UniProtKB/TrEMBL annotation:
<dbReference type="InterPro" id="IPR045340">
    <property type="entry name" value="DUF6533"/>
</dbReference>
<feature type="domain" description="DUF6533">
    <location>
        <begin position="31"/>
        <end position="73"/>
    </location>
</feature>
<feature type="transmembrane region" description="Helical">
    <location>
        <begin position="180"/>
        <end position="204"/>
    </location>
</feature>
<feature type="transmembrane region" description="Helical">
    <location>
        <begin position="129"/>
        <end position="149"/>
    </location>
</feature>
<keyword id="KW-1133">Transmembrane helix</keyword>
<feature type="transmembrane region" description="Helical">
    <location>
        <begin position="20"/>
        <end position="39"/>
    </location>
</feature>
<protein>
    <recommendedName>
        <fullName>DUF6533 domain-containing protein</fullName>
    </recommendedName>
</protein>
<keyword id="KW-0812">Transmembrane</keyword>
<keyword id="KW-0472">Membrane</keyword>
<feature type="transmembrane region" description="Helical">
    <location>
        <begin position="102"/>
        <end position="123"/>
    </location>
</feature>
<feature type="transmembrane region" description="Helical">
    <location>
        <begin position="224"/>
        <end position="244"/>
    </location>
</feature>
<dbReference type="Pfam" id="PF20151">
    <property type="entry name" value="DUF6533"/>
</dbReference>
């Protein structure tokens, strides 16, 4: 064997070793994502039972439960099967990755819908935003689903020999993927940046107006921090895809998917928990996003007279009107 053949064999071996390392690293990050999600689910499960499961069924409850429990399928069940299943051929690998990818995208879209509805709430269900927010949401998610389609259809797999399966724990080895996947995170960053700005504007006025600091922390401060977390994760995903070698495309995908569900769930649970503690409303699930609890200490003269019907119960909600925070009675 001549020197060139030896060098070529060495390069192929090194390429295989690097690829195996990337698979192991991505698998480790996926397991971290699953562990974080399961820990958060257990930590908030009692609150969920009290504030959601004992409530009447409505749109927000269905939306909450869908985005809350989809990660058990797409980020836990399917991913674990892909990573540790045996006797998987290339066709099965691609089908599993495709199903998991579309389910992750759908779950993330539902989580973003909750956060978008919350923005509409703090803007007093503004009629202009009732048009602009759906346009923004669809304008970002339509390209995201297209880029996801391009990425998933570009995936190419090879199956590994049995000996390597016992080393890696997986039969699915990605050998080709389109870097257009980065555009998914770019579009998500655009949506997150717009929503963050829309949260900061009324948040600033609420801070200047004073009032219930616990409510301010629940709605504005926590909401803004959540979006900063998501924005940072999307930025990291873009850097990883554009800078690191092939094989790292999904390094932070599982983490961001699970964090989206966790933070969106906490948004609803914390708002309803605050309302329960202050006894602003009925103990059942009313809305939790488009109707936000406000302090009983608010000046009644500043309350606007708008009425709505949500399960026949009355409670208070945040209103941003003429750059001031007021309270309104919702029946």
């Amino acid at each position: 064997m001549d020197a060139q053949a030896i060098q070529a064999a060495q390069r192929q071996l090194q390429s295989l070793i690097d690829g195996l390392f990337r698979v192991q690293l991505v698998t480790s990050f996926d397991l971290i994502a699953i562990s974080i999600y399961m820990f958060d689910w257990l930590a908030t499960f009692e609150m969920e039972v009290e504030l959601v499961w004992k409530s009447n069924w409505n749109f927000m409850k269905v939306l909450f439960l869908l985005q809350r429990y989809l990660p058990f399928v797409d980020s836990t069940g399917l991913i674990l099967y892909i990573k540790f299943g045996s006797n998987l051929n290339t066709v099965t690998c691609k089908r599993l990755y495709t199903a998991s990818g579309y389910m992750m995208a759908t779950g993330t879209a539902l989580a973003e819908l909750i956060l978008t509805l919350r923005v509409w709430a703090v803007w007093h269900r503004d009629r202009k935003l009732m048009v602009l927010l759906p346009m923004l949401y669809v304008g970002c998610w339509a390209p995201i689903m297209y880029f996801m389609y391009r990425f998933l259809t570009s995936l190419q797999f090879v199956t590994l020999p049995g000996s390597l399966h016992y080393v890696l724990g997986t039969d699915c080895f990605i050998v080709e993927a389109d870097r257009i996947f980065a555009m998914v995170w770019v579009m998500l960053m655009v949506l997150q940046a717009c929503i963050l700005i829309l949260m900061l504007i009324p948040g600033y006025h609420a801070y200047r107006a004073g009032g219930d600091s616990a409510l301010y922390n629940t709605i504005y401060r926590d909401g803004s921090i959540y979006y900063l977390y998501l924005f940072a994760l999307s930025t990291i995903n873009i850097i990883v895809i554009r800078v690191l070698p092939h094989g790292y495309e999904n390094l932070f995908t599982g983490i961001e998917r699970c964090v989206h569900s966790m933070l969106s769930s906490r948004v609803l649970l914390h708002i309803r928990s605050h309302a329960r503690r202050q006894e602003f409303g009925a103990p059942h699930w009313a809305d939790g996003v488009t109707d936000l609890p406000f302090s009983e200490d608010s000046d009644p003269s500043s309350s606007s007279a708008r009425f709505d019907t949500v399960s026949g119960q009355s409670y208070r909600s945040i209103v941003i009107q003429r750059t001031q925070v007021t309270s309104e009675k919702v029946i």
